[in-house]
Structure formats: C-alpha cells, structure tokens
Amino acid sequence: MTIKRSIIETPGDQFFLPELPLYVNRVHESFEMLQHTHDFIEISYVAEGSGAHYIDNTSLPVSKGDLFFIPVGVSHVFRPSSIAQKKNLVVYNCIFTQEWLNQLFHSQLNGSKEEFNVLFTQATEQSTWLSFKERNGEFQPLFERLHFEYNAHRSGFMTILQTCVAQLLVYMYRSKMDFTPEASKASLQDLDSLLAHIRGHCSSPISLTEAAARLTISERQLHRQLKKHTGMSFMEYVQHARIEACCQQLRANDHKISDVAASVGYQDMKFFNQLFKKMTGVTPSQYRQQNK
C-alpha cells in the first residue's frame, strides 16, 4: 500500500559540531514529528515499546530490539502504537555523516573488504535502508554506551564512539547473515545466550561454575571464551552488566540509589559506589544529574 505523506528535509548542521560529525540521542517518539529525509546516515534502535516505522512508502510494525540503517535521502518517521503515557515508544538514534563512516571503515576497520563492510557501503551508495532484529541483547548495551559517552564527553570519548559504531555494524551484519561455520556458530550463539541471561537477570547471583554448567563446558573453557569474545573475566562481565542496568535505572526513574543498587544485587553501598565510579568515572548521583 502506498502511503502519501508530507516530507521535510532535516539537515545535519542542526545536530553536528564542526569537530564532531556524530550525534546520539534517546527520544520518546510522538505524533508530532513529520516524515523526513536527512543529509546524514542514521542508525535507529527501538529500546522500549512498540509502534510503526514509516520508511519511504512502507509501513513496518516495530518493537523492542528492532534496528534500522537509514542512508542519506531515505525518508522515515517513527510513530508510537498509542498516545498513552504507559506505552512509550523509546528510540535511540546515532547519526553521522557519510564522510565519518568512510573514515571509520578506513581507520577503525583498516579498510577491510569483508562482507559486512560491503553490505553497508552498497546500502549507502544505493540509498537502500536495512532492517535488523536483536537476538541476544547485543545492541542495547552499545547504544547505552554511545549515549553515555556522547553526553559525558570524557577524555577519549571519540575513540569509544568509533569503536561502538564499528561493533554495531558487525553485529547488524551477523544478525542478518551466517557469519561462521555451523559448529562454531552454535558455540557462539550459546555464549551469546549466556551473556544475555546474565544481563537480563542482574539481581540473581550466578557463579562461574553455574555458568559453565549451562554451556556444558569447563570453567577454564568458559573463562577463555569470555576473555576472547568480551575482553573481560566472568566476574568483570557480571559487574559490567549490573552497572549498565543501574545506569539505565538512574536515567529512567528517581528511585533511591541504594534501592537501585539493591535491585541488581549490591547491598554494600561503599563497594557499589567505588565500583560504579571506577567503571563510569562518576558517582551514581553525578551520573543521574548528567543524564536528566
């Protein structure tokens, strides 16, 4: 069905600084925004709620975990499924110039000609939008980190932004294509499922022994796999997942910090505050103030 809409053009200079051709936000979608095109590339991730995404002349239902790669010149707009406050459609947007993406491919990805590079290069050249579906919670932590780093502007934040976008592109490709041989693919999917379980059950204690048993491998094997694929030990990953969950709560509500800490398994507030500052560079109170 063809959908006729008024379409406006949104220029990137509304968002970009001369020294920073990238912008990240987190928005509650409404019925006020018109369908629009833009002179930059956009990656949009549905973090909460459901609704519709109008792209060119197509209407797609969307819900948590949907992600879109939208090249220059493609018109689109998100709409929530309801105007009710309890049914918000929350979307993260990461936008950047074509030049910035070209530089990323050249520097961060070393000019790689791997298929995922080709996929996005062709999409931008042909103005073809792409859609993806999160499988194991791999997208949301990256968007949360992008949003935090962009707003905090701490030392080295541009390197982290580049790294996060590069990871996004790889995960997007993997979610659509067969990326590994079947045997190793199954193993990596099991590991991804375990990591998603840890992120989704932060308040529940889980030991390395229990985690290894879930994958029917030894603790030593699990430790090696985690180090290889996440760069972290088991306990470091658990702590990372818990602090990320705390960050999400601190942005979303005004609950007491001690209650937020307890909700992910931390009762010792001195330890929690030290760990939070070590991982984010700020205290929980400062993080909440910076992200209001």
TrEMBL record:
TM spans (from-to): none
Keyword Membrane: no
Residues in HTH araC/xylS-type domain copies: 192-290
Keyword annotations of the record: DNA-binding, Transcription, Transcription regulation
InterPro entries linked to this entry: AraC-bd, Homeodomain-like_sf, HTH-like, HTH_AraC, RmlC-like_jellyroll, Tscrpt_reg_AraC-type_HTH
One Pfam family in the UniProt entry: HTH_18
PROSITE patterns: HTH_ARAC_FAMILY_2
Protein name stated in the entry: Helix-turn-helix domain-containing protein
Source species of the chain: Paenibacillus phytorum
